Amino acid sequence: MTVVCVRGPLKELAGGRSNHELDGATVGELLRALELRHPDLGGWILDERGLIRRHINVFVNGERGDRATAVRSDDRIEVLPAITGG
Amino acid sequence: MTELLVGTKKGLFLLEGDPGSGFEVRTRAFPGEPVEFATRDPRSGRLLATMTSPFYGPKIFFSDGDPSAEWEQAQGVALPEGGEQALERIWVIARGEADGVLYAGGDPGVLFESHDGGTTWAVNAGLWSQPSRPHWQPGGGGLCLHSICTWPGDPDRLAVAVSAAGIWLTDDAGGSWRRGNVGLNPRYLPQEALADENAGRCVHHVERAPRRPQRLFMQFHGGVYRSDDAGESWTEIGGGGLPSDFGFPLMVDPDDPDSAFVIPLVADMDRVTPDGRVRVYETRDGGSSWSARGAGLPAEHAYLTVLRQAFARAGGGAQLELYFGATSGELFGSGDAGATWSSLASRLPPVFSVVAV
After folding, report:
1. Complex ipTM > 0.85
2. Which of A20, B96, B133, B207 could form a disulfide with B101 if both were Cys (CB 3.0 to 4.6 A apart)?
3. Which CATH number does B77-342 carry?
């Protein structure tokens, strides 16, 4: 099982827990699985196209990833709002 | 006592007061978040707010309790999954004529309906499936459905405006739609493009005259218009006394179908109040003539921008209250139909919308 970690409002919407063990072969599959387990998260990370929202960053073991990034069962996925602005 | 719901770049502000004795900020909600629009449904007392988090996308929230803390996310505010577009923003919420019905307009040119007072929403399929939709062109603010004009007493009739896909009309509660752009003159298009009904009709704001619902007023991207046939066709009325026929906000006196109020800006390339003066312009003859209403408003070195949803009314007739906010964070109000004005707040975040309840 891969661990997906969410914080802030995403954590609240995910039942108040940061870490979620999920099955999936890619980041996109994991995020969709997270939404299915916690429907209140629907639309917060992924938009209607299934794309990760523009100002959300996903890191796989500390490296920047995207929805197509392949994951293994011992990976750790961090979902973070981007630092935007200037 | 009037309640003002002021959507800003940094949260929702609820003010209470009256134009004679001033207003106070009672509540700030969604601190730090852009709140594009908020309204209260007088039938239920429910507050509704649209907020587009730069991180998490557009949402509608509602509150039946303490608006400083108790908000719940509405469900169904999304485009059909699997398409090529995502919802960018909710621009406006309007009360329908039938019990519990609300409408919300958003980008990309989408109309949402709620039949339970705003708890759940669904895309209006008739407008969403318009065959011409792939050819619709966005305006500078996106493909925004910003104006929703209900028909008093008839829940089946509706006019909506999309920048820049023009006016759309329905007589069957949104089951089918047709265009209503006859007479509009987009001066920014070459003459040979006018025959193309998909070429941009950049409507900025539309209001219906409740006492004569076949009459509507429109602020266009260059031009002020009136329709006397329920939005099927339009006549330009911006020539008689306006310093500019460019602008966004427009309001009507619900008791007087010959009335309309606009806040002109210089031009599309210079979107500030003309001559460094803030003035509201009023017509009481259906647009044949316009008069400046500026007593109490800044008269020099005032280059304000007033956005399309930032002009509101309460009451009507001699007691008509008018309110508007600017991107400078100033908020102005009048309790005598625009004859005199006062500053209600001067250091709010940039104002996106104002609704008076």
Report:
1. yes
2. B96
3. 2.130.10.10
